[in-house]
Amino acid sequence: RRRRRRPVRVYMDGCFDMMHYGHCNALRQARALGDELVVGVVSDDEITANKGPPVTPLHERMIMVAAVKWVDEVIPDAPYAITEEFMNKLFNKYNIDYIIHGDDPCLLPDGTDAYALAKKAGRYKQIKRTEGVSSTDIVGRMLLCVRERSTGDSHNHSSLQRQFSHGHGQKVDDGGSASGTRISHFLPTSRRIVQFSNGKGPGPDARIIYIDGAFDLFHAGHVEILRKARELGDFLLVGIHTDQTVSATRGAHRPIMNLHERSLSVLACRYVDEVIIGAPWEVSKDMITTFNISLVVHGTIAENMDFLKKRNEKKEASERKYYEGKTYMSGD
Ligand code: CTP
User: MF terms per GO, please (predicted)?
Assistant: First the structure.
């Protein structure tokens, strides 16, 4: 990269309601069109006026966007449509070079294009919208699982196929085999995983922290716990439980997002260095050795703690501290 030139600053705005990996992928592509990415998060009122009330309030949406590793700055209360006035503010106050949006049409209630002015000014660039995921789709999956729970029809369960649920975590008793419920249209490719990865392993003396969980419907509580975990060391390895493990421990209707979707959301988080796509429920000695883990921060099963405490008595205090944090997260 040339050092002397001014960094190219790009702007992406959006609602980022019920943030998912499609949003993360949009931010990743936007960032690749410049050197610095500024994100405008639309205010609750503006969303309500243009497409109905958001599920997650502005402060949570801000946390989610700021946690994405490709984001450099976040502006709260962005307008839904880019007005002349706001565009000038972007250019003059925020030094923005380009305004970016996905290739889906973004229309205002009156049918006009929300990015018309930016396009006219020649400062608009487009990224490819991610197929297979949207807030609407996620809500649909949630509704489907509510319906299934109330009918309890296991025939229907087995006829509905969830993708990518095979081949992982076979150790878990699949008593919850009625879990093949949700249909994801997401096709994870190795390239997508590479795009989301950091590509850097831990340094030779790194203090490696391990945390595992379902991380279903990745939310502000998850971000907070990952931030705290990362602070305890130099490298944060996150184990994502298999779909079977999640179903077996949280009920057949979970997870809503499949293993690969959950892995991408966690990978996009700036506090995360690496993920294990399909982590075992038990943190074995082998795993600790293999990954050179210094500290396991964990809270879902008490049995593991005895082992962990024995292994690392000095770290007891921080484990306790972590436990309290975990309560916050496991409320989901
Ligand atoms: N976006 C994307 N792929 C998706 C969903 C959103 O690339 N599957 C992009 C949008 O094009 C936009 C940015 O993410 O540039 C912010 O999206 P948001 O304003 O939240 O838009 P929606 O399109 O409403 O997203 P969703 O339908 O998932 O709520």
Answer: ethanolamine-phosphate cytidylyltransferase activity
